[in-house]
Amino acid sequence: MGNFEKKTAEYLLQIKAIKLQPSNPFTWTSGWKSPIYCDNRKTLSFPEVRSYIRDSFAAIIKNLYPQTEMIAGVATGAIAHGALVSDKLGLPFIYVRSGAKEHGLGNQIEGYFEKGQKVVVIEDLISTGGSSLNAVNALRESGCEVLGMVAIFTYEFKKAANAFASQNCQLNVLSNYSVLVETALKTGYIGQTEVETLKNWRLDPVNWGVK
Questions:
Q1: What is the pLDDT of residue 2?
Q2: Are the beta carbons of 46 and 15 closer than 8 angstroms?
Q3: pTM here?
Q4: Which of 160, 150, 99 is nearest to 120 (CA)?
Q5: Which of 17, 75, 82, 96 is an S-S bond match for 42, by CB 3.0 to 4.6 Å?
Q6: What is the pLDDT of residues 82-96, one digit of tens each?
């Protein structure tokens, strides 16, 4: 996994999918102040990066989950990546909304699937893990057997690790926060002072930056 982690981090920094602003923090939807913002949708605009992510996901799935019968993408960020991976592997594809539609058929899961099918879930980003595991639970409640989840990037929050463990869902990622910070320092993207700020944020993101 080491090669995946470093190369993915380099790509994310190169295309500016990762923005690091310790001195001018972002505000997340949750209200958290953050020195980092990860926008993996940008990876779709770069063919080389997009293909690398697709091929890396496919390699992990073939290696760890050879019994996979279907790929599921988490809406909306991972729909395109999921479709690319399913095409690469020659497998059916479905995607999972955050909740059931309030009109039409009222589906939360879009596409054709059958109970008992073995599914690997594709996600673009893992923060607290809540929305990702919501998709996993929706699939399980619909009768699918979720083998695991593969994501592009994780912030490595302890809350997320605990959540995945409690839901008995294996998580595999292409890269993570620690490797990203290390890579950003080595490439001169950030300095040592900023590294300390970024490390402190991840230890207590809820209270970081609160005056």
A1: 54
A2: yes
A3: 0.93
A4: 150
A5: 17
A6: 999 999 999 999 999
Q: Domain extents for the chain?
A: 2-26+33-198
**Under CATH, what is the fold of the domain 2-26+33-198?**
Rossmann fold (3.40.50)
Q: Mind listing the pLDDT tens digit for each residue in 142-189?
A: 999 999 999 999 999 999 999 999 999 999 999 999 999 999 999 998
CA quadruple 56, 60, 63, 69: dihedral sign: negative
Q: Is the pLDDT of residue 45 over 80?
A: yes
- First-last CA distance in the chain: 39
Rounded CA separation 98/207 (Å): 27
